[in-house]
Amino acid sequence: MSSVQSTSPEIPPLLSEAAALGEASAQTLLEWVEQRLGSRAAIASSFGAEDMVLIDLARKHAPGVRVFTLDTGRLPPETYELIEVVRRRYGIEVETYFPERTQVEALESARGYFSFRQDLAARKECCAIRKVAPLRRALHGRAAWLTGLRREQSLNRTDVSVAELDSTHGGLLKLNPLAAWSRQQVWAYIQENGVPYNALHDRGYPSIGCAPCTRAVKPYEDERAGRWWWEAREHSECGLHPVR
Question: Where along the chain is [4Fe-4S] cluster bound (predicted)?
């Protein structure tokens, strides 16, 4: 049975309000989120550079917003270290959602530990179990979720909206406050505000996911080139953010 829910009647008016802010600053959008949604909104964080900027901004402008992460069981140790830094520095609880044990056990027993390298369908199956299903549980009962998506990150993300209706994961509001930010803006904010970040960024990893599916990129490659690098570039999404 699908876990996708119908859209709540309150969501379309909220979407209209958020969309009316247009390309307002991330701070302005977060202040609106705090006023209108508070703890019913949450940041979905993989603790990359964008997510760290978003967490820092939210603590200043939307302190009621929750933070959650999807622990796939295969995150790099550097990501766990950063999560601990975030918990201590910002004094927040990071809500953690794991994949269902029985699904992971069945997948690994039947198809091995690296089935995601076999073909695109096998990779999407792994992502569906380890990421997409936990995300739906994480979003259950919330009115909105916030992401660190930026249009500049890849060809799949060039038309990311600041505010949109997420009908894929439960018919709620999806907000992308950094949609118009450049990579330079992200890192300027981190440096100017002393924001902690994942140590892998200093080793050539602009985008960080599960350890077996992430590598450093070359200077001429785009930011998502290190994700599932054995696949065609148009496939560089896991299902959390459907390709448009």
Answer: 126-127, 210, 213
